[in-house]
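Exercise (ungraded).
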Amino acid sequence: MSLVSLPFLIFICVLLILYYRMDSRHQWKILLLAGLFFHAWSNPYLIIFLLISIISTWKLMQNPVKSHFIWVLVINLGILILFKYSVNLGVKDLAAPLGISYYTFMTIGYAHDVYDRKIEPEKDLYHYALFVSFFPQMTQGPIGVYQEMMPQLTARHSFDMDNIKKGAYRILVGIFKKMVIAGRVAFYVDTVYADPGSFAGLTLIVATAFYLIQLYADFSGYMDIVCGISNMLGIDLKENFNRPYLSKNIPEYWTRWHISLNEWYKTHLFMPAVTSGFNRSFAKGLGRVFKKAKKGTLRLILPTVMVWVVTGIWHGARLSYLGWGVYFAIVMLISFCTQSYVKKLNEKIGWNRDNIFVKIFRIIRTLVIVAAGEVIFRSERFSDALAVFRNILTTTRINGSAVAAAMTPFGNGNQAAASMLIITVLITAQAVIEIAKERDEKAFTGHRYIYAAAMMVTIVLFGVSGASNFMYQAF
Amino acid sequence: MEELLKLLSDIRDDVDFENETELVDGKILTSFDIIQIIGAIDDEYDIAIPAPEIVPKNFNSAEAILALIERLKG
């Protein structure tokens, strides 16, 4: 059931009525049933794997000894790997249970925290089941953290019209980002990236910029819908994006993009790897070779490479995903290793990091590095990515004919120019509204209806109706 | 304490480790800094800090870090 569809609209309306009509002691039970129904809707048989994960993890972690934790990992990762890489494993292409990546991560996060004695095991199987199957975040996250989610999920929530309005508005913003912005630029990106070698530099630059916009609008739009639905239920989810494209360096970027996944990696993979005995001796060994290296830097090498290779492969068994992971591992390591030198250099040449031009330079530099990584990510074959880089570096001209050529993926002549203009206006409008909202939430609320009406009209006029699948669902 | 403060200011000379009490919660230290601190403590005192101990409350001030070191030593 796509979040942008009629069945879902009916589902959410029925749910809200039951949720607020019911004695508030039972609200969490309604959420649990809704989650299981939502999962079963996508495939009634595959829910068995969700249930296996829930019941086995809950039972094993009641007594959080090492062997039980290992069993949790084997069961959950086993099912995940079976479904995600079935084709590569020589099995036929299996339809995966809905949201398997996301609920597996949540499950392992919970088990790890229990094993580390950070939290007490959940006594109630049904409460635990609700945590794993809370439907808004099931398909694409955010990856919930047990100790943050549980108190909200089981709390009593009384009806508050303000929450409904706030949620509805947020959902509308999400639909707008998805159907209008991501949907429109997708035409352009898909056309160019189907055969990138045949396009000139400027067109490829525009396509790559549009791809960054598409990724953000699609994914953060989905998060807006998810957070909006949760708002309506009186539940606040953690934000998954924090204006990532305004980051000033790559490590910062990864704390502002897909925040819940990166937090998860940090807590459950990176930090354990940093402190592992193997990494400790590896770093000490390297330290004997690189005597001048700053303390601690050598400890980052192995864990960084590992996390990024895993992140790459998590997106699918494809060479360009692996390439993307390795690319960011290298960028991160360069960033870590040069940090102190760059700081000294800045002091020497008198760069003031608070200067607006320095800030803009750093933002653009970060965007270019991110864009280069996403070129690799988007390219179906590795050779396509190389073609994109080659053409951008050798065939980028800025003149009348190059600009005209850059319009053609949108169609011919006036139609293409109009599309380009409309999409630019819409993206700008969206950014302006978001900034207005952040600056003064209260003043903004007064105008909310106007923005809402404008967005509805735009969705009807320019929305791409066939585009109800969200990109990150595939992962 | 003197020794620890020197070790810390070798990693970040722009932070007032003596008085600051929200090093992590106040977002003064990045996770990169924390890993450097962990590495330096290991080199200096031969103490491996296990992952579950890497939580904000253990790194929010020099005092907290010292307490952690002493706890792990003993």
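Further reading is listed at the end of the chapter. For now, observe: Residues 2 and 18 of chain B are 10 Å apart (CA to CA). Chain B has a mean pLDDT of 87.
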